[in-house]
Amino acid sequence: MTYTGASRQIVIPKKLHDALGLKAGDSVEVEIIEGNKLLVTPKEGVERHPEIDKRLADADEDIKYVMGDRPGFWVRTARPPMEGMV
């Protein structure tokens, strides 16, 4: 048995997580079947790119730093382009 958290997250028990071959950060598709059951399917083909993940995390930190307690205030920062993305 598992529980839902305040942010609607569900923890997949380790035994099931391992049986599905999931790793932290993997994507899954969740759908309702038969009216009241959840079907959780690992999502194939979603590649994660460490450099993009790092830059997104950096951007989130920049936004948090600049916004502080001012929701709706956005600042665009200039960053050098990633290799191969120009």
How much of the polypeptide forms β-strand, as a percent range? 5-15%
Give the class-level CATH name of the largest domain.
Mainly Beta
- What would the principal axes of the Cα set say about the shape? extended
Question: Terminal Cα separation, in Å?
Answer: 49 Å
Total number of helices: 2
Biggest beta sheet summary: 2 strands, antiparallel
Radius of gyration: 18 Å
Overall tally of domains: 2
Task: Characterise this structure.
- Helix content is 28%, strand content 14%.
- It is an alpha+beta fold and 86 residues long.
- It folds into 2 domains: 1-46, Pemi-like Protein 1, Chain: D (Ribbon), CATH 2.10.260; 49-86, no CATH class.
- It has a two-stranded antiparallel ribbon.
- A hairpin with a 3-residue loop joins strand 1 (28-33) and strand 2.
- The protein starts with 13 loop residues before the first helix and ends in a 19-residue tail after the last helix.
How would you summarize the topology of this molecule?
Elements: H1 14-19, E1 28-33, E2 37-42, H2 50-67
Antiparallel strand pairs: 1-2
What's this model, at a glance?
This protein has two domains: 1-46, Pemi-like Protein 1, Chain: D, CATH 2.10.260; 49-86, no CATH class.
Q: Which structural traits does this protein have?
A:
14% strand; alpha+beta; extended; 86 residues; 2 domains; two-stranded antiparallel sheet; Pemi-like Protein 1, Chain: D; 2 helices; 28% helix
